[in-house]
Amino acid sequence: MSETFTSEVETLHLDSYDGPFFDNQIMKIDELAEYLKLSTKTIYRMALKGDIPSIRVGKSYRFLIPEVLRSLKSGASYGKRN
């Protein structure tokens, strides 16, 4: 009875995903850093450089997850942020 479960595990393919799971989900820097397994400093730098789309709210940033995922997959640049 040495069955492996790898055949039963499905990979999530976000390129073909249309559902509402990530729709309108907004994250702060620390939440996005944890989600992407990056440091908060890296996320902040990426937002400043325009490597990921962000919304500035006061002195902090917010990230719309569908846009971030699309930009990371496409390698798009969003221009330098102020």
Layout of secondary structure:
Elements: E1 26-28, H1 29-36, H2 40-49, E2 55-57, E3 60-64, H3 65-74
Helix pairs in contact: 1-2
Distance between the termini: 59 Å
Give the strand order of the largest sheet, numbering strands 1, 2, ... along the chain.
1-3-2
Structural class: alpha+beta
Number of helices: 3
Instruction: Find the CATH topology.
Output: Arc Repressor Mutant, subunit A
The residue fraction in helices comes out at 25-40%
| Biggest beta sheet attributes | 3 strands, antiparallel
Could you tell me the strand content as a percent range? 5-15%
Question: What is the rounded Rg?
Answer: 16 Å
State mean pLDDT (0 to 100 scale). Answer: 77
Work out the count of structural domains. Answer: 1
Overview of this protein structure:
With 82 residues, the protein is an alpha+beta fold. The chain has three helices and three strands, in the order βααββα. Strands 1-3-2 form a three-stranded antiparallel beta sheet. β2 and β3 form a beta hairpin. The protein is globular and about 30 Å long.
Primary descriptors:
Arc Repressor Mutant, subunit A, 3-stranded antiparallel beta sheet, 3 helices, 82 residues, 3 strands, 13% strand, alpha+beta, disordered N terminus
Outline of this structure?
With 82 residues, this protein is of the alpha+beta class.
